[in-house]
Amino acid sequence: MSIVTVQLGQCGNQIGFEVFDALLRDSHSFQGLCSKRENEAYQTSCKERFFSEEESGVPIARAVLVDMEPKVINQTLSKAAQSGRWKYGQHACFCQKQGSGNNWAYGYSVHGPRHEESIMNLIQKEVEKCDSFSGFFIIMSMAGGTGSGLGAFVTQNLQDQYPNSLKMNQIIWPYGTGEVIVQNYNSVLTLSHLYRSSDALLVHENDAVHKICAKLMNIKQISFSDINQVLAHQLGSVFQPTYSAESSFHYRRNPLGIDWQVRPPLSGLPPLGKMSLSKDLHFNTSIANLVILRGKDVQSADVEGFKDPALYTSWLEPVHAFNVWKTQRAFSKYEKSAVLVSNSQFLVKPLDMIVKKAWNMFASKAYIHQYTKCGIEEEDFLDSFTLLEQVIASYCNL
Amino acid sequence: MTQSVVVQVGQCGNQIGCCFWDLALREHAAVNQKGIYDEAISSFFRNVDTRVVGDGGSISKGKICSLKARAVLIDMEEGVVNEILQGPLRDVFDMNQLITDISGSGNNWAVGHKVFGSLYQDQLLEKLRKSAEHCDCLQCFFIIHSMGGGTGSGLGTFLLKMLEDEFPEVYRFVTSIYPSCEDDVITSPYNSILAMKELNEHADCVLPIDNQSLFDIISKIDLMVNSGKLGTTVKPKSLVTSSSGALKKCHKKPFDAMNNIVANLLLNLTSSARFEGSLNMDLNEISMNLVPFPQLHYLVSSLTPLYTLADVNIPPRRLDQMFSDAFSKDHQLLQADPKHSLYLACALMVRGNVQISDLRRNIERLKPSLQFVSWNQEGWKTSLCSIPPVGHSHSLLALANNTCVKPTFMELKERFMRLYKKKLLFSLVTLLDIPIPHVLEQAVHFVACTRHFFFQVFQ
């Protein structure tokens, strides 16, 4: 069950490096909380999932690195090679000389079509190396030009070329105040396009991760490196192999195969009214929750709290919406760890905020000339706004 | 990685340009310890094998052989350029990339623009095309000139239109030195206003700088250095006005110190494009983020620190001071008051060991005291470059698109009108077939632009 990762732009490449590093580090750290055989199965599965073997024995990441200017890719390649434990493929990167200038339109309408063939070829080569291919993991930011614009274009192409493979996009939500002035435009355009072509959008907010670094980890001078490492850690504990008693290969569950495809009921059907005592507490209503537990005492862990109907929308039984994966093999240096992946109203507020700010700017037509000169017209903006308003409304109605 | 070409026009432009190349060499020498010609250096320099006759064969990799600046030097009198070519930097310039004349423009925009423009049009085009051909991927032209004279102002702006037509995809960043009130060139208001129209229409981005601000900065530095408080000493290389460690050894004229400030501005502006960092900012991102409407492209710049004291440990409070300084008038390169005007957009380009949390903390701290336009309340663009400038552990360049330029431009217009009402020096202008109504039209257009500025902002 192999995953091909596509790292796009400065953010995507910087994070991608940390993710592969964290995955390999974890696969080598055995705490002895499960049997040696279990551990070996885990390690084999992890290696197969994210790395391919070379004659020299150094694992090569199953990744394609894409950026429109060379500095970051060069740095990423050399950092990986320096670690000595793993590296990127020699020909696994696509690079140009001039970046996208924080312009979504440039990334999508200019760089996309221009380099479509080269990039898709690289991805194809990586897919062919997999014995059993399970899907794509695309890492990108929303605020810039390459990750966001070219990322949206590439995802669309993947949808066309590999309609039966799963695509999960890891999106980085920018800080509320300024990394990029046009970040709200870029975000709105990215999200509306990804909504049509991606299977799942896994979101991490820079503000939230920053808070984790400051408050939970007490780091004084937080760098992007720190932030990316926290992110990589979270992603690692989601994507590392999980034990499944169903198949004979115990660690072959498809990590991207989280059942996100939930359809709301047709109107006219009565909602499943399951009132719970704790209805007074205001939870973000969820459509689906996945809990992944690793380490000591997983079998005895009590997850009943996650089955509370108050957490879910009225037209879903908790048993359909909630999943738990338990693995005895511990993650990294933690004796016990838990991850919650949730499809809920949690993102309504941030999404609404971004749409509002983008609309506010759009109303004054500021910066629009930069987009129209690359082929993205005002109608495209309006379409994007409409789609996102619909998404917000759908989530609010849960 | 992309390349940029510097086009230095007129006496002022060439003197600043000379300082720029000097400091650029110093910066790259400090960073590039192994003497390998890498992509960072290639952004401003070609690597040339001087044994090859003629153009000098370009070498794209390997050890540095001989560096040639990606520059075109233009002046309608020979003095300044000759001095450069006899000075310590003579080997850095390509002899084929010069255009000079003897008579000069006589501080007359019309002579620079119309007379020399048409006379040297073909030569200019040829030199510019040559310099573009030497580039793998040309991204930007940096034009350096003054507004008050004849060549820099007239011929410099003639060039702009030419660059727009010939290289429409390449950015045009203009560093313009505006005349101060006590400017000794009487025609400077005429020249400046006539040049402004061209800047409005043909530049992507303009960094207006005035001599008065530069002079004030130097005075303050001198005061600080000479007051010798409590045995603190200033690191010589860290003075933003100094040429220490560069090829030119001493301040020959007071203008040298002022020119070094502008040279440092350009180095810091391009640092994130040349060197690595955790949050890169390329030149095309400057235009994308700071120019919300095509004609509103005037950016007020401020540079900090101006010098570094010799003590090594820099506590975070000192770091925060750097951010506060960037928003103080003492560090601005233009006489204006951004804090009491409206920000349309603001960029912070940080160099050195500064992390995202430092940046965020300071933005949160400074935000409440600054007014941003309603449709861009969080209008901040940030970048982090790991390599600090020579002599400093970190630095900050703030670029603000702010309505505070309006009073500056209005004042210029007033000076223009004072001359114009008295019909002073008209003959100079009309002699060259520039009709009187045309001059007035320029002035009116200019005023309209500044009004347009305000209108857009308060829409």
Automatic annotation (TrEMBL), chain A:
Keyword annotations: Cell projection, Cilium biogenesis/degradation, Cytoplasm, Cytoskeleton, GTP-binding, Microtubule, Nucleotide-binding, Nucleus
GO molecular function: GTP binding; structural constituent of cytoskeleton
GO cellular component: centriole; cilium; cytoplasm; microtubule; nucleus
Compartments reported by the entry: Cell projection, Cilium; Cytoplasm, Cytoskeleton, Microtubule organizing center, Centrosome, Centriole; Nucleus
Primary localization: other
InterPro entries recorded: Delta_tubulin (IPR002967), Tub_FtsZ_C (IPR008280), Tubulin (IPR000217), Tubulin/FtsZ_GTPase_sf (IPR036525), Tubulin_CS (IPR017975), Tubulin_FtsZ_GTPase (IPR003008)
Any one Gene Ontology BP term: cell projection organization
Residues annotated as domain Tubulin/FtsZ GTPase: 47-246
Keyword match Cytoplasm: yes
Domain of life where this protein originates: Eukaryota
Pfam families tied to this protein: Tubulin
Function according to Swiss-Prot or TrEMBL: Acts as a positive regulator of hedgehog signaling and regulates ciliary function.
Subunit record text: Found in a complex with TEDC1, TEDC2, TUBE1 and TUBD1.
The family this protein is said to belong to: Belongs to the tubulin family.
Full protein name: Tubulin delta chain
From TrEMBL, chain B:
SMART domains membership: Tubulin, Tubulin_C
Cellular localization per UniProt: Cytoplasm, Cytoskeleton
Domain of life: Eukaryota
InterPro entries tied to this protein: Epsilon_tubulin (IPR004057), Tub_FtsZ_C (IPR008280), Tubulin (IPR000217), Tubulin/FtsZ_2-layer-sand-dom (IPR018316), Tubulin/FtsZ_GTPase_sf (IPR036525), Tubulin_CS (IPR017975), Tubulin_FtsZ_GTPase (IPR003008)
Annotated TM spans: none
Pfam families: Tubulin, Tubulin_C
An example Gene Ontology molecular-function term: GTP binding
GO biological process per UniProt: microtubule-based process
Any GO CC annotation of this UniProt entry: microtubule
Domain Tubulin/FtsZ 2-layer sandwich: 279-414
Domain Tubulin/FtsZ GTPase: 49-277
UniProt keyword list: Cytoplasm, Cytoskeleton, GTP-binding, Microtubule, Nucleotide-binding
CDD domains linked to this entry: epsilon_tubulin
Similarity comment: Belongs to the tubulin family.
Designated name of the protein: Tubulin epsilon 1
Taxonomic lineage of the native organism: Eukaryota, Metazoa, Chordata, Craniata, Vertebrata
Gene: TUBE1
